[in-house]
Amino acid sequence: MRWRKLGLIFCPSGQYRWMHTHAATPIPLGLGDDLYRVYFGTRDRENRPHIAYVKFDIKSPGHLLDISEDFILGPGLRGYFDDNGVYPGCLVEHHGSLFMYYLGRSNGIPPLFYMSIGLAVSDDRGKTFRRLFKAPVMGRSEFDPWMVSTPFVMKERGLWRMWYLSGFKWEDVGPQSYYHIKYAESSDGIAWRREGLVCIDLREGETNIASPTVIKEEKGVYKMWYSYVAPGQGYRIGYAESLDGYRWTRRDKEAGIDVSLSGWDSEALCYPSVFVHKGQKYMLYSGNHFGRDGFGLAVEALER
Question: In terms of C-beta density within 10 A (0-12 exposed, 13-18 middle, 19 or more buried), how is residue 64 classed?
Fold first, then answer.
C-alpha cells in the first residue's frame, strides 16, 4: 500500500484562548455525501488540551467549511482524572447515539503525567457531547500500571473490542516513558475486561507505540496503523495485520507513508486515523511536535 498526501488540513494559530496551539489525535465523523467533521485535541495558553473540530468536503479538504467556535469538551473538575485536559480517542455509533472514547489527562510531578479513558455521548450527531461518567471507563490496572490512552473501539457481532496504548514503565534516565498496544473486550462498551494481551510490542531500541486504528477487510483480515518511535527518530507510522484481532504481525515497511522532505510533517508522523470513504482508504494524521504543526490527510494511492 502507498499513500498520497493531500496536505495540511488545519493548524491552530491562537484563534481562541482555548485553541492556542496543536491539532493532535484527529478522528473523523462522516456527515453524509462527501462531508466530514474531524475532531482533534488543541491546547490553550496553559497547555491544557481541549476537543474541537473542523468540517470539510473530502473532495477539497484544504478548504474548511467550519471551525468550532467553542470547544466540544474541555478539562474536567479539579482532582478528576481529566482535570488537565482531554483529547478525542475514537467514535462509535450505538443505538442512535454517538460514543466518544476520550483521553483524560492529569499531571503528576513533572515530567510524570497520567492518562485514562473516559466516555462522552452525543445525541445530536456529534454537534455536542456530554460526559457519561465522572470517572474513567478504563484506568490504571495490574496490566497497565502507569496509564492507558489512545483507544480504538470496534463493535463486532455484539462484542466491543478495544486496542489501546498501555503505559507500563518509566526510566529515570532521560527520563524515558515506555508504552505499547494491548487489547480489551466488553459486552456493553463500558465495563472492560483485560488480561494483559499485548498486540503490538516494542522492538529492540523502541520506547513508545501509540494510537492504533483498525479496519477489517471483507476477506476477514484486520489491518492496523499506529505510530511508533523508531531509534534515533521521532514518531513514524507503522502497520500490522491479523486474522483474529488478537495476534498481530508487524509489517512497518508496508505502512506506505513517511515524513516529508520539509514542512509540517518533515520530522514526525503520529496519531493516524484510517477510514474508508466510497471504497477508498483515507488517513488523518498529525505532524511535527505531537501535532503542534497541525494535522493533514492522505489517500490510498490505487494501482493502475
Answer: middle
Partner residues linked to 59 by β-bridges? none
**pTM (two decimals):** 0.97
How far is the C-alpha of 267 from the C-alpha of 229, rounded, in Å? 12
Evaluated on CA atoms 297, 302, 303, 304, the torsion sign reads negative
In this predicted model, what pLDDT tens digit does every residue of 125-177 receive, in sequence order? 999 999 999 999 999 999 999 999 999 999 999 999 999 999 999 999 889 99
Distance CA(34)–CA(178), nearest Å, equals: 39
CA–CA dist 267, 103 (Å, integer): 24
Residue 179 grid coordinates: 508504552
Query: Per DSSP, what are the bridge partners of residue 181?
Result: 165, 200
Burial class (CB in 10 A: 0-12, 13-18, 19+), 158: exposed
Q: β-pairing, 97-107 with 113-122?
A: antiparallel
Which residue's entry shows cell 454537534?
A: 127
| pLDDT tens figures, 44-70 | 999 999 999 999 999 999 999 999 999
Q: Give domain limits for the chain.
A: 73-300
Cβ atoms of 244 and 251 closer than 8 Å: no
Residues 215 and 239 sit within 8 Å (Cβ to Cβ): no
**Class at the top of the CATH hierarchy for domain 73-300:** mainly beta
- Cis-peptide, bond into residue 175, ω within 30° of zero: yes
